[in-house]
Write a structure and sequence with these properties.
- The structure holds two protein chains of two kinds.
- By secondary structure, chain A is of the alpha+beta class.
- Helices cover about 30% and strands about 20% of the residues of chain A.
- Chain A has a six-stranded mixed β-sheet.
- Chain A is globular and about 50 Å long.
- The two termini of chain A are about 20 Å apart.
- The relative contact order of chain A is 0.18.
- Chain B is an all-alpha fold.
- Chain B is about 65% helix and about 0% strand.
- The chains are: A alpha+beta, B mainly alpha.
- The interface of A and B includes residues 30, 35, 72, 121 and 122 of A.
């Protein structure tokens, strides 16, 4: 079962990790936009996903972000909020944990961050998943506009599918990322569903009639 | 007389919406905080005062700015009836964009149609640009730069696709 994170112990004013965004991060968000859009659009709709972004931290702690909704990252970065968003940083995750975007309510920047990430683009729920590989740290973020009350259970029960989608997106943009992570070589994901041995899925059964949870 | 009536009704809608939005003022003759309207409109205090008193109509660009600020359609702000608040208030699937910015995006995108085969996908991409642009909080020049970079990414994308096709002889 997915661990529910307790954030009570975190100092609300802490800056997460030693952060260094790529020097050209704002350009990177947009200069590959056509390719990124084409790739990420392929997975939009699966699990009612309306947003996908992918954050990669290199072994030298340099972050690069690719997003189908780049206004989110652009606004967070230019308003100095990105470094206060707990979902961006490896220390917030424990062993391939998942984080809900709205769970860090004690963060004094929470409302500003959530307004940009969720409300501005009409997302009702967002989540981020992490993956470590060859000294790199990859974060898959997804958001939906679906208003169903049981979405959290739904996504927890489909977490492996979300990882598959994230892996697919990363594999598809690896060549693009390669040009931004020198002198390192962008990692290669070979083990599909690596979550399986770590996340023990709780059996989940729910009746669905006419595409609505009962 | 018709124009006076039109301008007067515009001012009534404007002041009503401003009061609803919390910009009412007991000290102002018009009953609203003119300073805020002037800031949003980018016009002088005197001109903003004329808008709310029904002495003048803003031009199209300013009307769009005010409508966006007050979350109504520009058309309703200009022509609507007081009893008929438009149903697009708070409707979240509408795109509200300033006309000159939309024109800029469309003009920049136009060459892409001649170099791509998948016009539907291109249309989706342009819609993404339009939608994303409306959410960016930045100065106009920065937004235009983002549009330029995005369009350029599509140029490069098509060049790469064409290169690949040439290599495999299609």
């Amino acid at each position: 079962m997915i661990k529910e994170r307790k954030l009570d112990d975190r100092c609300p004013l802490m800056l997460f990790d030693a952060t260094k965004l790529h020097d050209d991060i704002l350009d990177i968000l947009y200069e590959n936009r056509r390719s990124i859009t084409k790739i990420f659009r392929e997975v939009i709709g699966f699990y009612d996903i309306d947003h996908v972004s992918l954050t990669v931290r290199s072994p030298s702690n340099e972050f690069v972000v690719f997003s189908i909704t780049p206004n989110i990252e652009y606004n967070l970065i230019t308003q100095g909020l990105w470094q206060h968003d707990f979902t961006n940083f490896p220390s917030s995750y424990i062993n391939n944990d998942l984080l809900w975007w709205d769970e860090d309510k004690k963060n004094p920047y929470f409302s500003d961050i959530y307004k940009i990430k969720g409300q501005k683009n009409n997302y009702t729920l967002g989540l981020s998943l992490s993956r470590k590989i060859e000294g790199f740290f990859i974060i898959y973020s997804f958001a939906t506009k679906n208003k169903n009350a049981n979405l959290r259970s739904y996504y927890i029960s489909n977490i492996q599918g979300l990882y598959d989608i994230g892996d697919h997106c990363y594999k598809s943009i690896r060549d693009i990322y390669s040009s931004y992570c020198k002198p390192y070589v962008a990692p290669v994901i070979t083990n599909a569903l690596f979550m399986a041995p770590i996340v023990k899925k709780k059996p989940f059964l729910q009746l669905i009639v006419n595409n609505k949870f009962l | 007389l018709e124009r006076d009536h039109f301008v007067y009704n515009f001012s009534r809608r404007l002041t009503h919406l401003m009061q609803q939005a919390g910009f009412g003022s007991l000290r102002s003759k018009a009953g609203v905080k003119i300073k805020h309207l002037a800031e949003i409109s980018g016009c002088s205090h005197q001109m903003a005062r004329r808008y709310v008193l029904g002495d003048a109509l803003p031009d199209v660009d300013v009307t769009f700015k005010i409508a966006k600020w007050l979350k109504v359609s520009p058309g309703w702000l200009l022509f609507g009836e007081e009893s008929d608040i438009p149903n697009n208030i708070n409707q979240k699937n509408l795109i509200n964009i300033e006309p000159d910015l939309l024109e800029y995006i469309l003009m920049k995108s136009a060459p892409l149609f001649s170099i791509t085969n998948d016009t539907r996908e291109l249309a989706c991409f342009i819609m993404d640009i339009i939608n994303d642009t409306t959410h960016i909080e930045a100065e106009k020049k920065d937004i235009l730069k983002i549009v330029d970079i995005s369009i350029h990414s599509a140029m490069r994308f098509n060049e790469n696709v064409n290169d690949k096709r040439a290599k495999i002889g299609r």
